[in-house]
Amino acid sequence: MSGESIMEMLNSKGAVRTGAVSGISSRAIPEQRQTATDRFLQYPVMSTLRPAYPRGPWHYKNMHQLVVTYESTAEAVRAVVPEPLKPADGNRVTIEWRHMADVSGFGPYSEVGHSVACTFEGKPIIYVFQAFLDSESPTLAGREILGFPKRHGEPELKTVREVLTGTLSYGGVQVALATMPYRAVDLSDRLAEIEQELQTTQLVLKLLPDVDNHTPKVAQLVQVGIYDVRLKGAWGGPTELFMVPHVGCPVAALPVVRVLEGRQHLWDMTLCDGQVVHDYLEAKRS
Q1: What is the CA radius of gyration of the chain?
Q2: How many whole angstroms separate alpha carbon 85 and alpha carbon 143?
């Protein structure tokens, strides 16, 4: 079959369309590409075929939490707190275990968060400087959207006989252990106070490098938006905390001088968005 016959056959079947025949001008092609790009940008999460996490807000129901607040050393606290934040009096650090029993979009998962009591512009805040999760989707969402310093770990919160036990392992090596009697001291008379405390402003340091793998693209202090807080129960009791030095999971970098308080919470909340309260790159340019 000649070349002319092949072209005639393909044209007759609609397999070949030139710009003149199809009515598509050269200007229409960039418009089509732009439309496809807009579609991808409607929810800018990789991959575009299956985004790594769902669009929020994310509703947390019946979240079980073990919170241990302890005094650390002034040197260790200063080492993790960026300006313009200032460590609060007392070098107070909190490590907390959370089992998220029911989370819209994510499903159940567990997390350990590590934070320092600070002040920002004279007001009390909580600065979260590291966290370890056992689920990929909330880890990526926390890092990419708000800037939570989340990494993969092996946290677990469970009741062993009459003891609520929080453990954190990294690669099978246990690096933290917290224990307290399960719901020993009812704190129902303090629910309003504790619920307000749970809504203390939380800040994280969002850092992202540019594609040159060197220059910072994003450097921001972000205030985390926590909504619809409902504390269903709170309990206290004696608490023990033990941490092991580990380069991959450095919870022991803020050593325990003495445990100040241990509490258990059962509560709901909604996590959705954040607000930039300090932009380091903008401040540098000004």
Answers
A1: 26
A2: 20
Are 58 and 105 in contact, with CB atoms under 8 Å apart?
yes
Cα–Cα dist 60/106, whole Å: 10
How are the residues of the chain apportioned to helix, strand and coil, as percentages rounded to the nearest 5?
25, 45, 30
* Cβ atoms within 10 Å, residue 154: 19
Question: What is d(CA 220, CA 201) in angstroms, rounded to the nearest whole number?
Answer: 16
**Who's near 25: CB < 8 A, 6+ residues apart?**
19
Domains of the chain, first to last: 58-285 (2.40.400.10)
158 classed as catalytic: no
* Region for 31 from its dihedrals, namely left if φ exceeds 0, alpha if ψ lies in -120 to 50, beta otherwise: alpha
Q: Which of 58, 229, 220, 199 is nearest to 140 (CA)?
A: 58
Q: What angle do CA 153, 62, 195 make, to 5 degrees?
A: 100
DSSP state of 194: H
**Beta-carbon neighbour count of residue 274 at 10 Å?**
21
Q: Which of 86, 150, 158, 217 is catalytic?
A: 150
Cβ 204 vs Cβ 141: under 8 Å: no
Q: Please compute, for residue 175, the number of CA atoms within 13 A of its CA located in the half-sphere on the CB side.
A: 23
Q: What is the pLDDT along the chain (286 residues), one digit of tens a residue?
A: 444 443 444 344 444 343 333 343 444 445 555 666 688 888 889 998 889 999 999 999 999 999 999 999 999 999 999 999 999 999 999 999 999 999 999 999 999 999 999 999 999 999 999 999 999 999 999 999 999 999 999 999 999 999 999 999 999 999 999 999 999 999 999 999 999 999 999 999 999 999 999 999 999 999 999 999 999 999 999 999 999 999 999 999 999 999 999 999 999 999 999 999 999 999 999 8
